[in-house]
TrEMBL record:
Taxonomic placement: Bacteria, Bacillati, Actinomycetota, Actinomycetes, Micromonosporales
SUPFAM superfamilies assigned to the protein according to its UniProt record, in alphabetical order: alpha/beta-Hydrolases
Protein's UniProt keywords contain Hydrolase: yes
Protein name, per record: Alpha/beta hydrolase
Keyword hit for Hydrolase: yes
């Protein structure tokens, strides 16, 4: 059984982040797992046992998510999340090669870190794993709906986000979990869907602060980082997406792959947005391949 240790670190501007670690501290490679918007680090739980055998594993809940705190309207931005990642790496993985693995918002956080801290990125990051994410904001997002309907939904979503952003650290009451389950099932999952995965995802969503649910929406929608990706140094990279992903459809991953020559693209038939839960074996195998490639490169250096 894999032992997962839990701790907290405090960022330089005050917020505390909840950290989970597994594997041997002296492992040659550190893998940092970044979760999606309004989720938390637990979404990677099916990857951790296998990863911990070949690397040190670090997961943390982003500010305003999970067990972490410290969110206000000024800091609910991708810029801030990119800076947070830089600070987390300095604290929990100050030396040695790092593989960054990001799901959805986590992938966007990695891109923002690369954009804002290019020298640090080039020096530390030896492998990339981009899962169900985008470098183009909501350009390709139509929620699985006809484009005209999707535009109306986006307007309503942006309007409600402005309201939620003002509510700060308030969390939805857990009674909303049952009401959310059908919509989350439709929006986030393909086929099949394990009820345990839907339960975990729903619990993560209701644990996120209302400020994070609404506050991050503007910067997420406006993101544009294809040029940043194109300028990155070449490292072992895998890009995965679900065929039925309604939030970051395959077009998002195709553009990422074009910007990152040599990146391996996998489209998972029938799967939705929550690939690490829906297709755990595929995700784990692809991630371990990246880790082994990084390990081999540094062993031969």
């Amino acid at each position: 059984m894999t032992t997962v240790e839990q701790a907290e670190i405090r960022l330089s501007d005050g917020p505390r982040l909840h950290i989970r670690t597994a594997g041997q501290p002296g492992a040659p490679v550190t893998v940092v797992l970044l979760h999606g918007w309004v989720l938390d680090g637990r979404t990677w739980h099916r990857q951790v046992p296998s990863l911990a055998k070949v690397a040190r594993v670090v997961m943390y809940d982003a500010r305003g998510h999970g067990r972490s705190g410290g969110l206000d309207r000024r800091t609910a931005t991708l810029d801030q999340l990119g800076d947070d990642l830089a600070e987390v790496l300095r604290v929990v993985a100050p030396t040695g090669p790092v593989v960054l693995a990001g799901h959805s918002l986590g992938g966007m956080t990695i891109m923002e870190y690369a954009h804002r801290h290019p020298a640090d990125f080039a020096d530390r990051v030896a492998g990339l794993f981009l899962l169900s994410t985008t470098a183009e904001g909501h350009t390709h997002t139509v929620y699985g709906l006809p484009p005209r309907v999707a535009n109306l939904v986006r307007v309503a979503e942006m309007t409600s986000a402005q309201v939620l952003a003002r509510l700060g650290d308030w969390r939805p009451h857990r009674v909303f979990a049952l009401a959310l389950r059908p919509s989350l099932r439709w929006l986030l999952f393909g086929h099949p869907c394990d009820p345990a995965d839907l339960h975990l995802t729903t619990q993560a969503v209701v644990r996120a602060s209302l400020g994070s649910i609404g506050g991050f929406r503007p910067s997420v929608g406006a993101q544009a980082r294809l040029e940043t990706l194109a300028a990155l140094p070449s490292v072992p990279t895998a890009v995965l997406v679900g065929e039925r992903d309604k939030l970051t459809p395959p077009a998002c991953s195709l553009s990422i792959t074009k910007a990152l020559p040599g990146a391996a693209l996998t489209i998972c038939p029938g799967a939705g947005h929550m690939l690490m839960l829906e297709r755990p074996d595929v995700v784990t195998s692809a991630l371990i391949e990246v880790v082994r490639a990084v390990h081999d490169q540094h062993r031969g250096a």
